[in-house]
Amino acid sequence: MTTYLDFEKPVADLESKIAELRHLPNSGDVDIAEEVMRLQDRVQKLLRTTYAKLTPWQRVQVARHVERPHAQRYIDRLISDYTPLAGDRAFGEDFAIVGGIGRLNGRSVVIVGQEKGDDTESRIKHNFGMPRPEGYRKAQRLMKLADRFKLPVVTLVDTPGAYPGLDAEARGQAEAIASSIDTCLAIGVPLVSVVIGEGGSGGALAIASADRVFMLENAVYSVITPEGCASILWRSNTNAQDAAEAMKVTAQDLKKLEVIDDVIPEPMGGAHRSPDDTIDVVGRVLSEALGQLAELDPDTLRRQRQEKFLAMGKKGL
User: Fold this and answer.
1) CB-CB contact of 201 with 227 (8 Å)
2) Domain check: are 256 and 121 in the same one?
3) What pLDDT, on the 0 to 100 scale, is given for residue 28?
4) What does DSSP assign to residue 250?
5) Of the candidates 304, 270, 303, 264, which has an alpha carbon nearest to the alpha carbon of residue 286?
């Protein structure tokens, strides 16, 4: 059953009518198949006009859609001969970070992703995509493994942010994030990142300090969630919509600000309506980017990657 967002109510009403018509017996008075086709055309037009003018807050809602494909689904569809790897070799396993070794269109890669889960049980298991320190240390371990064996790295970003619990702080959350960013900047192999849903704060940047950073059309990337920003500035998260507008969280805004390299288009109505098509497009973008970066030597990769992020800081001075 499709889950509809608030602004998709007109679409929901039309698709409900289509479902009702499909259960009606054929009669000579009404051509049900023709009426269904007419309503489907209206749905497509309505989706096109609705998604052509999404507000930043509406894009936040789309980025969080429960049916949006998450990291493990990308891995399952794109990566062949996949071998998952677990643990940080220091404390334990963090299911909010998934990753391993496999092949992307025949090219051996190490892939790391933030996994939110798809139902109540799996969301709890994966801590809603919020990694603890051991998750970021696991990511570092995989990136260093890739560097040792000269394998490119792909990261899939989808987190509201690093887990803010006391246990995470006690085990060195800030240090783990900082070290993960440092590892991203230090490895001598190609590193390509895609924000597939939410890119929240340092929890996202920890695995997204990459040679190429892409965002899906309806993904968001920000230093804090709109609700968190609103609770600080307005003392109420009811102003989250205003915060999303002011923070420039959308892929389109971040492309203009040159924080990301490019925007990956989504199928009409968002990635949750055509997950496999979305994943296939991301796979093609990743393969192309890795092919371009494969021509660069380790020193050039490190230098260009570091200069890229230093340049972002200088723009504000």
Assistant:
1) no
2) yes
3) 56
4) B
5) 264
